[in-house]
Amino acid sequence: MSRKLKTWSVAGLALMSTVACGDFLSGDKLDSDPNRATTAQASQLFTAVQVNTYYIVNGHAARVLAMWVQQMAGTDRQYIGYDLYSVTEGLFGEFSAVYTGGGLADIRSIQAVATTSGNKTLLGITKIYEALVVGFAADMYGDIPYSEAAKPSIKTPKLDKQADVYAALQTLLDGAITDLSAGAGSVGALDLSFQGERTKWIAVARTLKARYYLHTAEVNTAAYANALTQAQQGIASPAGNWTEYHSTSSGEENIWWQFINRDRDSYTRPGKFLVDLMIQRNDPRVPEYFAKNDLGGYAGAAPGEGLDPNRMSNLGPVRLQPDYRQPIVTWSENKAIIAEAAYRTGNIALARTALDELRAWAGVPAIAASLSGSALLVQILQEKYIALFQNYEAYNDYKRTCYPNLTPSSSASASGIPARFTYPVAERTANPNIPLPGNQPKRNTNDPANATAPDGAACKGQK
Amino acid sequence: MSRIQRLFGVTLALLLLPVGVRAQSALTVSGRVTNEAGAPIAFASVYLTGMGLGAQTQSDGEYSLVVPSARATGQQVVLGARAIGFRLKTVTITLTGTALTQNFILESNPLRLGEVVVTGAGTQSTTERLGASVSSVKSEEILKSNEVNVVNALAAKAPGVNVTSSSGEPGASAFILIRGQKSIEGTSQPLFVVDGVPVDNSTIVTTFSTAGTTSPNRMMDLNPADIESVEILKGSAAAAIYGARAGAGVVLITTKRGRPNSVNWSLRSTYTDDRVNRDYPLQTMFGQGSRGVAASCLSENCRLTGASFGPKLAAGTKVYNHFMEMFETGHVSDNSISVSGGTDRSTFYASGGYMKNEGVIVGDNDAYRRVTSLVKGNLEVNDKLRVGATVNYSDSRGSFIQKGSNLSGLLLAALRTSPEFNNVQYKDSATGLHRAYRFPRPGATSGNLSRTYDNPFFIVNEMQNTSEVGRSFGNINVDYTPFPWLFVKYSLGGDYSSDARIEGLPPSNSSEPTGQIDRANYTIFQVDHNLIATASKEYNGWMNTSLTAGQNLNSRSYKQLQARGRGFIAPDLFQLSNTISSNLLPLDYESLVKVESYFGEAKLDLWNQLFFTGGVRNDASSTFGKSVRHNWFPKASAAWEFTRTMGISGGAGLLSYGKLRAAYGVTGREPNAYQVFSGYTVGTFGDGWTNGLNVSQSGNAGIFLSASKGQTDLKPERNAETEFGADFAFLDSRIDMGVTYYNSKSTDVILSLPVQPSTGFFNQVQNAAEITNKGLEVTLNLRPLATPNLEWNVGAMWAKNDNLVTSLNGADQFYLGGGFVSGIKQGFAHGIILDYDFARCRYKETANNVNGVDINAVCKTAGAPEGALYIDSDGFPLFDETQRVVGDPNPNWTGSLSSNIRLMKKLQFSALLDVRNGGDIWNGTKGALFNFGAHKDTEIRGQQRVFGKTYFPGPTVGPGKDKSVVIDQGTWFTNLGSGFVGPASQFVENGGFTRLREVSVALTLDGGWVKSSGFSSMDLRLAGRNLWLKTDYTGIDPESNLGGASASRGNEYFNNPQTRSVVFTVGLNR
Q1: Would you say residue B796 has pLDDT above 90?
Q2: Which of B584, B689, B695 shows the shortest C-beta gap to A60?
Q3: Which of B573, B771, B767 is closest to B671 using CA atoms?
Q4: Are B737 and B780 in contact (CB under 8 A)?
Q5: Which of A61, B269, B299, B1044 gives the lowest tally of CB atoms within 10 Å of its CB?
Q6: Average pLDDT over chain B, rounded to an integer
């Protein structure tokens, strides 16, 4: 028996010493996370950047903005509140998405690889994605972190002035055009929009430059001339439209379809203002944009009105498809920029031509020869407002021009249609330069309130 | 059968072999053990000192002990008898002849002086030596609670220990919180240790904690009938021996064991009748529709508004109680059998249990069935070596119902339904397809269309949400005493469970209309090795010392293999292979954590009245950053039995006992696995409103930078706690009381501190926050009557904990997972309800601008008081878009009162009243039902009200003060009065309650036909659980939590409700 006892003691001591000498705390699944990759290829990050961009430009923010310009309306629960401008600083995750994984952090990684490997096609395209999403943040938030953003060495990036951000984006897009013009490198099928067709990307970069010139034009009318120059080299036909990739596969479906058809049926319906406007115009796009209601006709929802499913039209059968390629930057936007910028710079003939091209494409008759002055401008802006259905650029135009002269949806809101997003709570709490929501500016610096709408009437929604 | 189970099985078989060997012609010592009142004491242990022989009394108090003739040589030995709650009694007897009779009358020992208390990691002490407070819960108290989940059974049993069950459903998890929340992202659940080995008590949620289904906490795998005692190490001073795993306290469970020289049988059968304990206030005056216009379905597949703001229903319209129609009477049948006993050198305990719970929700799909077995064997190889093994096996099968914030959630669908819609007929008479109030006419083509909200009867009848768990845990242990002064204890424990889940929503459900199934398998495996050696020395009776050194190695792995399929091929087959293959989404994950620890403890007793303990543990965990791998957790305590100094002993006298104690200790909490690493991740991009977009698209692989930046020098959280206490007994120990004050400070609390998103990361974990908990715990026990025919005991407990988040290291506030409105904010208690409020006078805030109006200026001018509601010019309040604290779910205090009366030794009455004072709950259900016009309170629609007077009474200020307004759908209920639009503050309610948690009457029969049928006694018990509830809360029972056992407390959003029960128990013993 005593031998057994010794065996026990020895076994016990051996166990202790084995462990003490060996490295119990090292090994497989201890020295690294078995669930996450530690490296990523630029091509894989590029897919993420594209998908993340779709979420930024056609997710929650796009839906709320479409409600604020009354192209859509909130018809259920929280969306009624958003339509009544009940928005809080916790509302939009898009700000973070601009910078974090799939955003600027990964764009920077791709650009570093593309620069080293000389893949100027990939470099140029990611610059355009950067310009789109950073521009979105500048449009909505005004001053934003940019020059110091997504740099590992900088822990608290400072806010750049909105005007400086727009200026930097012009330089960035010029760089993209230079890179793409060099003809080096390729992306092929990794590019979900154009399969690496450089000329199409160059045209998109031009249109985007024109768009951003317009964004500064309310405080700097000289920008209209720049916008015109760029737009004239911009997207030359609808075949050059920059659209998202979507399919019927799970996780690849159009986000609007996901929202309305699958996940949040009843939360939003087309807006009464837009439906009425298009019916009144006898616009042939009505059956594309809207579905017939149970009564066989078309009707939109007034802002904040609860759902009346029998009477209210849903999104149309063309748009409400899982594989509908939601437009991001289009020929029609480009054409409308030409028309407006030409009008603003006194080239009425060009303005009329461009407007009529747009109308012909939409299937509505050419404008009357007598149409001129502010009535012509209103017509241009109206074409753009309709063409840019569901696109957040309609909201930027509204802020700049007060077209359409919308009646704010809620009597409770004395401050009109919101003119910017409140900084997200995560950024505010970590950044001492951002004031509490109540003390943040009501409008961005590029967007003073319009006293009047383009037709001269008092602007109802801007304060 | 896993490898470890097999290993246990073989070991056990070997250990049990010697049981059959019996001694030849011998001396039998027998007798009866009773209390002072003459009542028999069951499970008392009678033993011969120094001979390793003992026996256990039967339920009639009888014992019988056999001494082999070879060992009965006429010598004098000490025979002792002891039982929990009674003082040890010894007599000296002479071992001669073949039969001796020795009866014992034991004095009660309410303070449990001299009783051995396990104090963790293989160490033990006696009650009077403890310097840190340890709460004990006895087997009888656990059985009396009639809970099938041991965590629920601990409710109201110890001060400072709060238990909340997530709902009354079969298999619902229970949450235990000891002395307040100390962590933010880590678990607040204590470490559970069964028979010396840490075991898993995780609650794994298949899909979402705020939706999906309830899920059990894994301690449910233990049959409460197998528990002998529970010790709760509440504070860090008591729990420090478990180091970095003990930050939330430790619950030590000891299972029953056999006693030598006896054989005991016990059969226990319980039948329970469960009902939902509260109705829900719904309106039945107005029908489906909007703005007074009825909703009408003009065509097949029409979609109707979800609102019940239609016209007033015509007299005689049939309306339904959409709450109560979802419930029926539920049942629990719980049967346990156990047999235990042993010879002079070997003992065993074996039990089997079968529990079947059919819940209160209509249909058979809310059910939980558990089969348990426990086998334990011990063999004294010789006087120096004891070897033992224990194996628990359980097989649990649960079936659950979708709940919470979920288009396929039971009460979300049921309560929102308009009163005149008949939900019971959930299949359309023409097409046989799923019909629901917003989709009343399903056409033949609607098989894959959303119903907007499901019909609740479709939810309960057609969905499949199941869990099948096989679990085995146990240990092999060895005690070795090579020298009288040295004691070595070794245990090797294992805990393995495998949980196969299905969460399946068939086509036409509203969450994923083409059908969705999640299949998951969760495998948890823990191995624990614990070796200690204790050396002790006595110095002439005035001083005792002991020194313990130990090593602990622990390894825990978790593996999750989960996949989601969408798009059913056959409509009713819950298989991944029955979905369109391109729509599969894998969700697999695994983790491994290893901990290497060394610990030591020194004890010093002086003159049997001064007791000192000091100890330290060093933990190294794979979850700590490499540069900070080793962390120390010290402890020290002192106890002084001052009454002994005064010459008082034996528990007699006006002041019968008095002890002062002081203790300090540090515990910790490990970071989660892999928080030290950064990496790239795959997944989806989305905003929460939709399922989102996969990062890989069109066959192109995608990956993105993880939101969390790794923290390479992450340390464990530390919780340093000081406690002071005193224990007294008065009037010959008829009254005893204990008071404990504690003050704990948790530092290095891990927080995913947001980094500015503009840096490229959302957050990085940091040892950043500080939380304090200060509290007072009081117990008082009275034994006014103790006569042979009438015993009466009264017990009271009271506890208060003040929690404060003292620092978030510069960050402002965070939301907690598992809820909608729970967060933390510097300067407030943990888990506060963080949302919005109406604009009010807030003089303490420097800037109080809402919508461009300086509210405080208006208030000052009007001389309005703090908190006055600002009324805008339209007569309605104004939404204040600054997030703030609008409620605190932490109770002000908790208490309980229990009483026990025993008549004629046979009849026992007992009751337990449980009080929670304060503790806010966000009544999200009410907010949502306001929006839909389904809540009873929305019957006032169309009526005139004045804010501050006839609505939201209280002081008001502002341009619209005293203006009469129409409270209507558009003006209020879907506007600022809606839970979706308006501020949450208006739906925060006091969740305090007083409830009769337990009441019972029990009868023990031990004569006549019971004895003649071969039993020693029979127990009959009729009990009530939760029969009476008083609360101001207007929803379901406030003992409920949306996120189950998550850190978010006080969230109620279409939770499944609680139950009350009537329980009948029959127990047979011999």
Answers
A1: yes
A2: B689
A3: B767
A4: yes
A5: B299
A6: 89
Question: What is the rounded distance in angstroms from the CA atom of residue A195 to the CA atom of residue B695?
Answer: 18
What angle in degrees, to the nearest 10, is found between the helix axes of A120-141 and A198-216?
A: 20
CB contact under 8 A, B974 and A80: yes
Q: What does the DSSP 8-state code read for residue B617?
A: E
Residue B251 backbone dihedrals phi, psi, to 5 degrees: -110, 115
pLDDT, residue B1069, reads: 86
Chain B residues 869-908 with CB within 8 Å of chain A: 872, 874, 876, 878-879, 881-883
DSSP string, B540-562: TTTEEEEEEEEEEEEEEEEEEEE
* Separation between Cα atoms, residue B600 and residue B294, nearest integer Å: 75
What does the angle CA A453 – CA A454 – CA A458 come to, to the nearest 5 degrees?
Answer: 25
pLDDT exceeds 80 at position B628:
yes
Q: Give the chain B residue nearest A151 (alpha carbons).
A: B759
Q: pLDDT, tens digit, for every residue of B54-97?
A: 787 877 788 888 888 888 888 888 899 988 778 888 899 888 88
- Whole-number Cα distances in Å, B230 to B157, B158, B195: 11, 11, 10
Write out the two tokens for A264. Answer: 């949040």
Picking from A17, A30, A113, A264 by the largest number of B CB atoms within 10 A of its own CB, the best residue to mutate is: A30
Report residue B342's pLDDT band, with 50, 70 and 90 as the boundaries: confident
The answer to whether B591 and B677 have CB atoms below 8 angstroms apart is no
Between A295 and B565, whose confidence is greater?
B565
Helices (H) and strands (E) in chain B, counts: 10, 60
Whether B758 and A149 lie within 8 Å, measured CB to CB: yes
Cα separation, B781 vs A134, in Å, equals 68
Q: Is B513 on the interface with A (CB under 8 A)?
A: yes
Q: Name the minimum distance, in Å, from the CA of B711 to any CA of chain A.
A: 13
Token pair listed for B275: 């009902």
ipTM here:
0.88
Cα B601 from Cα B605, distance rounded (Å): 13
**Cα radius of gyration (chain A):** 26
Cα separation, B429 vs B439, whole angstroms: 14
The residue in chain B having the minimum alpha-carbon distance to the alpha carbon of residue A144 is B758
Q: How far are the Cα atoms of B267, B330, B707 from residue A431, in angstroms, in the given order?
A: 66, 54, 18
At residue B984, the pLDDT reads 94
A404 cis-preceded (ω within 30 degrees of 0):
yes
Measured between beta carbons, the chain B residues lying within 8 angstroms of A19 are 551, 553, 596
CA B526, CA B552: separation in Å to the nearest integer? 13
> Residue B981 is nearest to which of A1, A80, A262, comparing CB atoms?
A80
Section A34-50 average pLDDT: 91
pLDDT at B19 over 70: no
Judge: B702–A309 Cβ closer than 8 Å, yes or no.
no
Mean pLDDT to the nearest integer, B6-14: 43
Interface test with A, best of B380, B505, B756 (most A CBs within 10 A): B756
Mean of pLDDT over chain A:
90
Chain B CB contacts of A429 below 8 Å: 754, 811-813
Q: What are phi and psi of B303, to 5 degrees?
A: -115, 130
Of A5, A36, A258, the CB nearest to B679: A36
Q: How many helices (H) and strands (E) does chain A have?
A: 18, 6
- The alpha-carbon gap from A106 to the nearest alpha carbon of chain B, in Å, equals 7
- The reply to whether residue A40 touches residue B553, judged by beta carbons under 8 angstroms, is no
What is the token pair recorded at B860? 């000052």
Q: Determine the distance in angstroms separating the CA of B762 from the nearest CA of chain A, rounded to an integer.
A: 7
The model's pLDDT over A239-295, given as tens digits with 9 standing for 90+, comes to: 999 999 999 988 899 999 999 988 888 899 999 999 999 999 999 999 999 999 878
Q: Are A337 and A397 in contact (CB under 8 A)?
A: no
CA atoms within 13 A on the CB side of A237: 2
